[in-house]
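In this supplementary section we document a worked example of the pipeline. Step one takes a protein sequence of length 179 as its only input; no multiple sequence alignment statistics are reported here. Step two produces a three-dimensional model, which step three serialises into structure tokens for compact storage. The input and output of this example are shown verbatim.
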Amino acid sequence: MSNLEKFILENRADFDAEVPSLNVWASLDKHLDQQRPTVRLVWMKRLRAAAAILVLLLAGGAAGAYLTNQDQAVESLADMSPEHAEMERYFSSQVEEKMAKLAAYHQDGVVKADLKELDETYEQLRQELKDAPEGAEEKIIQAMIETYQTKVNILEQVLEKVESVNPTTINSTENEVSL
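The serialised model returned by step three reads:
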């Protein structure tokens, strides 16, 4: 055992009995008041305020982007691009033209059920396009285009059958219109 250890063990009671005087505590208190702990607190308050503002701005930006994205939901082919709008107009005009020809033969009721099913399918695809995740739109658009193509194909096939069976009905109807 070293001399220091021996001294501490022998005089332990004296160490515990001694209390610093009030002058020592007053001096410590004076030194603590003179230090600048407020600098750190000021910076912490500023950082907290900046963080709160940043969080509010980010939350507002995210909410705005979400709402803007919801407002700009794609509802039809025409909303996608001018090319898609032109394609939709073309197919719509083809369907109308072929339906008019069938109406001239008084056969337009033959395909209405099939066209109704395709219209329901198209409507489902349109709803899916609204809610489609980014990148999946092209597959849905392709399916919408195929729906239009199917409509036109059905109408063409029915027209071919009707015209092959009864080619004179359309001519008599056209003559009635021209009179």
